[in-house]
Specification:
alpha+beta, six-stranded antiparallel beta sheet, four-stranded antiparallel beta sheet, 1 helix, 16% helix
Length: 142
């Protein structure tokens, strides 16, 4: 329960930041907050869009919530302007229960980034045990 409270606080703070930055300028970057939780794994991401084809900053956090010997992982999935989905590399949390590694990256897709969502899974090696997806969020600049 404590982990969920911290996660909700992160999401609320991110939403407040997004609201403030999106209102200040029509030409400013726009962003979305994504989160998802399944048995043994939680993840969230803050995606900043700089254009219809460029996510200038993607901040991921993965949380392993079970001491079960399996790892948590997450990745971004995008929907291109033509409706085709693209999956991006996994970020894998090997730290064990309670570990919360964070990653920051960016991505460019010349086909456009119309929408994004987060996939969060618990896995072992290449096998996925259980997964969940966040809802789709639109790129306000697409």
């Amino acid at each position: 329960m404590r982990l969920r409270s911290k996660s909700m606080l992160f999401v609320a703070a991110s939403v407040a930041f997004l609201s403030a930055t999106t209102i200040t300028s029509a030409s400013a970057a726009t962003g979305v907050v994504l989160s998802a939780e399944t048995t043994g794994a939680f993840g969230d991401a803050y995606v900043t869009f700089a254009s219809r084809t460029y996510a200038s900053k993607i901040e991921f956090r993965s949380v392993d919530t079970l001491a079960d010997g399996h790892h948590a992982r997450l990745r971004l999935i995008t929907k291109r302007s033509n409706g085709v989905q693209a999956t991006w590399p996994w970020r894998i949390n090997y730290g064990g229960k309670g570990a919360q590694p964070e990653w920051t990256t960016s991505l460019t897709d010349k086909e456009g980034i119309a929408e994004v969502r987060l996939q969060v899974c618990r896995g072992e090696g290449d096998a996925l045990i259980n997964c969940v997806y966040s809802g789709w969020r639109s790129n306000g600049l697409a």
